[in-house]
């Protein structure tokens, strides 16, 4: 049972990390200062951090269920 929940959390975390990571990468503004292009991220990183945490928790549950 613990391994099944771990697999589900890992899948949800991986999909969420992929989606929120792409969105965070696209939410940036760039401007030029003295001939240099500077990119500033305006993304909200909280959803990405939560998805990575869910992914890690799922992996820990999978590997701890094997023992």
**SSE run:** HEEH
Number of domains: 1
Please count the beta strands (DSSP E, at least 2 residues each).
2
Query: What fraction of the residues are assigned to beta strands by DSSP?
Result: 15-25%
Strand adjacency order, main sheet: 1-2
Q: In terms of per-residue confidence, which ranges show pLDDT below 50 for 5 or more consecutive residues?
A: none
Spatial extent as radius of gyration: 17 Å
Q: Residue-averaged pLDDT, rounded? A: 89
The biggest sheet, with number of strands, parallel, antiparallel or mixed sense and barrel status, is: 2 strands, antiparallel
Which term fits the overall shape?
rod-shaped
Structural class: alpha+beta
Count of alpha and pi helical runs? 2
C-alpha termini separation: 14 Å
Helix-residue proportion = 55-70%
What does this entry look like structurally?
67% of the residues lie in helices and 18% in strands. The protein is α+β, with helices and mostly antiparallel strands and 67 residues long. A two-stranded antiparallel ribbon has the order 1-2. Helix 1 packs antiparallel against helix 2. The model has no long low-confidence stretch (mean pLDDT 89).
């Amino acid at each position: 049972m613990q391994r099944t929940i771990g697999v589900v959390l890992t899948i949800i975390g991986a999909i969420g990390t992929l989606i929120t990571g792409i969105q965070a990468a696209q939410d940036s503004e760039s401007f030029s200062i003295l001939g240099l292009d500077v990119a500033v991220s305006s993304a909200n990183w909280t959803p990405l951090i939560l998805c990575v945490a869910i992914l890690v928790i799922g992996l820990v549950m999978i590997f701890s269920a094997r023992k």
